[in-house]
């Protein structure tokens, strides 16, 4: 499915496993600059490698514990240092507002099911 996301920057929290992994890989197929924000670094590295193989413009792991505000803030600062973020996916829930409150505009949230919303 072509969503016209090529070259856009996307953060997927919990992107190393389960639905987060599926969302990460779907974004990778769209050619995005992907940030996998994942507490399990081993799983995160696997998804980053897969994403690169599927056509992500770039894929980066940022170790993140979404239950710790300081960890989320550090992840956002790291992403902001690279580029503005156009979309976030938060399959683990609870951090969308926190992330979008800090990520550079323009920001577009993506629901837990991976559907873009305005």
Describe what this molecule looks like in 3D.
- With 118 residues, the protein is an alpha/beta fold.
- It has a single domain, classed as NAD(P)-binding Rossmann-like Domain (Rossmann fold).
- Helices cover 38% and strands 19% of the residues.
- The chain is built from four helices and five strands.
- Strands 3-2-1-4-5 form a five-stranded parallel β-sheet, with helices on both faces.
Question: Major sheet: order of its strands?
Answer: 3-2-1-4-5
Q: What gross morphology would you assign?
A: globular
Q: Whole-Å distance between the termini?
A: 19 Å
Which architecture does the CATH hierarchy give at level 2?
3-Layer(aba) Sandwich
Strand content: 15-25%
CATH fold-level topology: Rossmann fold
**CATH class type:** Alpha Beta
Number of strands: 5
Order of helices and strands: EHEHEHEHE
**What fraction, in percent, of the residue positions are helical?**
25-40%
Number of domains: 1
The computed structural class is: alpha/beta
Uncertain parts: 94-118
Determine the number of helices (DSSP H or I, runs of at least 4 residues): 4
Q: Let me know the CATH homologous superfamily.
A: NAD(P)-binding Rossmann-like Domain
Which key features would you list for this structure?
4 helices, 118 residues, alpha/beta, single chain, five-stranded parallel beta sheet
């Amino acid at each position: 499915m072509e969503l016209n996301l090529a070259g856009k920057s996307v953060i997927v929290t919990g992107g190393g496993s389960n639905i987060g992994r599926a969302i990460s890989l779907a974004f990778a197929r769209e050619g995005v600059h992907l940030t996998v924000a994942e507490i399990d670094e081993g799983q995160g590295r696997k998804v980053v490698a897969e994403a690169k193989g599927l056509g992500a413009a770039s894929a980066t792991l940022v170790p993140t514990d979404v239950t710790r505000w300081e960890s989320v803030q550090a992840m956002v600062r790291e992403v902001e240092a690279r580029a503005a973020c156009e979309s976030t996916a938060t399959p683990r829930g609870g951090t969308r507002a926190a992330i979008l409150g800090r990520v550079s505009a323009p920001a577009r949230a993506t629901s837990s099911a991976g559907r873009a919303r305005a």
